[in-house]
Design a protein that fits this description.
By secondary structure, the protein is an alpha+beta fold. Helix content is 16%, strand content 35%. The chain is globular. It starts with 5 loop residues before the first strand and ends with a strand.
Length: 127
């Protein structure tokens, strides 16, 4: 049986900013709405509402964000795959962020209506 997930579209548009690996976390990153901050040896990535990202920042803007309604246990498998598969097989680019309790799947605003249709056809519930 395929995994069925409830998803909620978060309000507003999102962006993904890239800063240098050793850059401090900027004050503009914090605030209301979904925010994810990840640091690796190569970069500092920040996902947040688009309007908070400064115009001169290296960023990809214009994303819509679906929250997978969890929480999901760490041992559960196929949750994210069940959501991204119907999108990626139809050529819709995605950006996935996982948190302790759940997952977020971002799609470009231009692909939002197609993503809604494909997710519903795959048996997922859009709240």
């Amino acid at each position: 049986m395929a995994v069925r997930v409830k998803l909620r579209l978060l309000d507003g548009a999102y962006g993904v900013a890239r800063l240098g690996a050793s850059d401090p976390i900027p004050a503009w990153a914090d605030g209301s709405g979904f925010v994810s901050i990840s640091r690796s040896d190569d970069e500092l990535s920040i996902v947040c509402p688009r309007d908070r990202i400064p115009g001169d920042a290296q960023a990809d803007r214009g994303w819509s964000c679906f929250k997978l309604q969890g929480p999901f246990a760490f041992h559960e498998t196929g949750i994210v795959l069940s959501v991204i598969s119907p999108l990626s097989t139809q050529g819709i680019g995605i950006f996935v962020v996982s948190t302790f309790d759940g997952d977020h799947v971002l799609v470009k605003e231009a692909d939002l209506e197609a993503a809604r249709r494909l997710l519903t056809q795959a048996g997922h519930v859009l709240l």
